[in-house]
Write a structure and sequence with these properties.
6-stranded mixed β-sheet; 11% strand; 59% helix; 10 helices; two-stranded antiparallel sheet
Length: 436
């Protein structure tokens, strides 16, 4: 740390001592005054002014910005005690070191230094009072500098505890978060590419091979009856191939999500579910594309996980919103015990965190399981902070397990109606990627 920075911290600590005395006096008057209703507005104004002075002192002299504007009487009490004690020790040490330095220089300059023998085991040193004064002053000044830095550090820690982390700490955390989510999205994209390759290889390609073999046999068959039968089998296989292609395309990204919105897309998920799925839609309108996509995949993967791993008999999906955020909560009556660090759930968490959202899993052994995701209505790339940070990806790829299979079969149609209304699904079949 440079000398100018140390001097600024020392000035801030000394000013903190003076301000601490004022704060102690204010608290001694404010606490009894709070019992009088008529005096409370004056107490609040005084608290606000002292907090403004504290924020200005922390910013100008200690180089520390705070997130919150109010810290309450608790912050003032702790700050005043630390400020008075630390400031007094630093000021007293600085004054004493100044006396030693000035006295030592005075004695050396005017020749008034007196010999001072120093007897140590095996060593005898003869010095003078002037040199001892200079040495003591320098040592004490170094100790005062260290004490000042320590008090300044405690001041910043105290401000972080009561007022939230400073701007530098927030920036450091933001950079670490963006680095983690960026690497997570890269892994998610790679996992999705591998899942698509498995789906094409294990499903579409196998049916294509079977279709080619049937057509080849029909081409080389000399029996008209057998040829007709083979062509009929080839036609059925081609229909199954088209169904498989539609299923793969739906698992990659359902067109209903873009064309009809989240409500219709979740109705399609409920339709393919092998257990009843009820969707309560409390959204007034469609979220932005990135948020809508993330909500869809969170709900779909959580439903798939409940069916495939928890043995759930009933699943409930609730969509809600407030003025700032959109939330989805998926609960089921399955066996519970979902592992948040598993491939599927960790993939969902990465997708939500990439949009500055929150992702929680409550799944005690024996159930029930509740998975919740809350996303801001404004994605990171469109927020005012976008100029200061890297926007997160939209997270449009679903997370799957090693099997990557998700077979659909017919069942009763189900969907969701207007805000606050519920829609239930009948039976069907869906197995897919694991969230556990």
């Amino acid at each position: 740390m440079s000398g100018s920075r140390a001097a600024r911290v020392l000035a801030g600590v000394v000013l903190g001592m003076a301000l601490g005395l004022v704060e102690l006096a204010f608290l001694c008057v404010a606490w009894p005054a709070c019992l009088i209703p008529a005096a409370r507005p004056a107490v609040v104004r005084g608290l606000d002014r002292l907090m403004a002075l504290e924020r200005a002192r922390l910013s100008k002299w200690l180089g520390h910005e705070v997130a919150r504007r109010d810290g309450g009487h608790g912050f003032l009490a702790a700050r005043a005690a630390l400020g008075v004690l630390g400031g007094y020790l630093c000021a007293a040490g600085l004054f004493l070191s100044g006396l030693l330095l000035v006295g030592g220089l005075w004695d050396l300059a005017w020749g008034r230094a007196e010999p001072v023998p120093v007897n140590l085991p095996g060593v005898r040193i003869v010095t003078n009072s002037g040199m001892l004064g200079l040495t003591g002053g320098v040592v004490l000044l170094a100790l005062v500098t260290l004490m000042t830095l320590a008090v300044g550090s405690l001041e910043r820690r105290l401000a972080d505890h009561f007022l939230g982390p400073g701007s530098h700490e927030l920036m450091r955390r933001r950079i670490a978060e963006l680095t983690a989510t960026r690497s997570g999205i890269v892994r998610a994209v790679d996992d999705e590419r591998r899942r698509i390759e498995r789906d094409l290889h294990d499903g579409v390609q196998q049916r294509g091979v079977a279709l080619a073999m049937l057509l080849g046999r029909a081409q080389h068959s000399a029996d008209p009856g057998a040829t007709t039968e083979l062509v009929a089998q080839a036609y059925s296989e081609s229909r199954r191939l088209l169904d498989e292609l539609r299923s793969v395309a739906w698992r990659i990204y359902p067109t209903a999500l873009d064309e009809l919105g989240l409500r219709a897309a979740l109705a399609g998920v409920a339709d393919r579910s092998s257990v009843p799925v009820t969707v309560h839609d409390g959204l007034a309108g469609r979220p932005v594309s990135e948020v809508e996509t993330a909500l869809y995949f969170v709900a779909r993967e959580a439903i798939t996980n409940a069916i495939k791993h928890a043995g759930a008999r009933d699943i409930l999906v609730v969509l809600t919103e407030d003025e700032r955020a959109v939330s989805v909560v998926i609960s089921d009556d399955g066996s519970g015990g979902a592992d948040p660090t598993g491939g599927g759930l960790s993939g969902l968490a990465r997708r939500v965190l990439a949009l500055d959202g929150e992702f929680t899993v409550q799944s005690p052994p024996g159930g029930p399981t509740k998975i919740a995701a809350t996303l801001p209505k404004t994605p990171p790339g469109d927020s005012p902070e976008a100029s200061e940070s890297v926007p997160g990806p939209s997270g449009g790829f679903p997370q799957t397990d090693s099997s990557g299979s998700e077979a659909a079969s017919s069942g009763p149609r189900a969907g969701s109606s207007g805000p606050g209304m519920a829609a239930s699904s009948g039976s069907g079949a869906e197995s897919g990627s694991s969230c556990g």
